[in-house]
């Protein structure tokens, strides 16, 4: 079946602009995660959605970052007033059950802030 | 604190040689452990997982890993490496209390012909 998809695959934006990154999880997966991968920090957890529960936002680095998940499916990660340190690959993953033991990752969105 | 350590940043092997990538974890309870592979410009692909039971687990692409509780290790192995195995490999532990995967820094594998 179809895997996790993310769009766009690449995004170049100017410092100070807002960006939206989209994730389509595997159909039927209840858990959805966002991670960030950067050279200096490795793979970092950002946010976790599980069903209709309140998301776990503990990994968001600042209040410029937000995410939502509509209808328990598609998710959008929004970064406001982008900074150069936001440049990274943003990875989305979904998991079939509570706890999300095994996570399936999308191809990522490479964000470059100039 | 929960953590994953991959001691080797880069490893180079010859095609056909055996491979072992090291992973050590720090986790208070029974860990759920994973190995992922990432090819350049790609996302992470799940190679194998350990939840419980048999400590030797088989994965895709001919990889296996062995869980050793006494050593807090989950090393990845392959008996004969192919050039297509060149990639970056990440070990991870699932932190149930924090609902996230904690990743090691990764090991970049180069394969010489």
Task: Set down the secondary structure blueprint.
The complex is a heterodimer of chains A (about 110) and B (about 110).
Chain A lengths: L4 E3 L2 E4 L5 E6 L6 E8 L3 E9 L14 E5 L5 E5 L8 E8 L8 E2 L3 E5 L1
Parallel strand pairs in A: 2-10
Antiparallel strand pairs in A: 1-3, 3-7, 4-5, 4-8, 6-7, 8-9, 8-10
Chain B lengths: L2 E3 L4 E5 L4 E3 L2 E3 L5 E7 L5 E7 L5 E3 L5 E5 L4 E6 L8 E9 L4 E4 L3 E6 L1
Parallel strand pairs in B: 2-12
Antiparallel strand pairs in B: 1-4, 3-9, 5-6, 5-10, 7-8, 8-9, 10-11, 10-12
User: Stretches of chain B where pLDDT falls below 50 for ≥5 residues?
Assistant: none
Question: How many helical elements of chain B?
Answer: 0
Which class of secondary structure composition applies to the elements of chain B?
A: mainly beta
Oligomer: heterodimer
Helix content of chain B: under 10%
Number of strands of chain A: 10
Q: Note the gap between the termini of chain A.
A: 37 Å
How would a crystallographer describe the biggest sheet of chain A? 6 strands, mixed
Uncertain runs of chain A are none
Characterise this structure.
- The complex is a heterodimer of chains A (114) and B (113).
- Chain A has 114 residues and is mostly beta strands.
- Helices cover 0% and strands 48% of the residues of chain A.
- Chain A has strands at 5-7, 10-13, 19-24, 31-38, 42-50, 65-69, 75-79, 88-95, 104-105, 109-113.
- In chain A, strands 2, 4, 5, 8, 9 and 10 form a 6-stranded mixed beta sheet that branches.
- In chain A, a hairpin with a 3-residue loop joins strand 4 and strand 5 (42-50).
- In chain B, the strands form 3 sheets. In chain B, strands 2, 5, 6, 10, 11 and 12 form a 6-stranded mixed beta sheet that branches. A 4-stranded antiparallel beta sheet of chain B has the order 3-9-8-7, with no helix packed on it.
- Chain B is globular.
- At the A-B interface, strand 5 and strand 9 of A face strand 5, strand 6 and strand 11 of B.
């Amino acid at each position: 079946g179809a895997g996790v998809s993310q769009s766009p695959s690449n995004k170049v934006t100017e410092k100070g602009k807002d960006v939206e990154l989209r994730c389509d999880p595997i159909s039927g997966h209840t858990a959805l995660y966002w991670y960030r991968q950067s050279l200096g920090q490795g793979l970092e957890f950002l946010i976790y959605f599980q069903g209709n529960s309140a998301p776990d936002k503990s990994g968001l680095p600042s209040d410029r970052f937000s995410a939502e998940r509509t209808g328990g499916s598609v998710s959008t990660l929004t970064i406001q007033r982008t900074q150069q340190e936001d440049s990274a690959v943003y990875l989305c993953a979904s998991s079939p059950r509570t706890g999300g033991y095994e996570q399936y990752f999308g191809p990522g969105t490479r964000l470059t802030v100039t | 604190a929960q953590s994953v350590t991959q001691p080797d940043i880069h490893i180079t092997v010859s095609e056909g040689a055996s491979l072992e990538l090291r992973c050590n974890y720090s986790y208070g309870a029974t860990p759920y452990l994973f190995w992922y592979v990432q090819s350049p410009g790609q996302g992470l692909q799940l190679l194998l997982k350990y939840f419980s039971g048999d400590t030797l687990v088989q994965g895709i692409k001919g990889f296996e890993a062995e869980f050793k509780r006494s050593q807090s290790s989950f090393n990845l192995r392959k008996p004969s490496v192919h050039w297509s195995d060149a990639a970056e490999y990440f070990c991870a532990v699932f932190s149930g209390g924090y609902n996230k995967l904690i990743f090691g820094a990764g090991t970049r594998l180069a394969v010489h012909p």
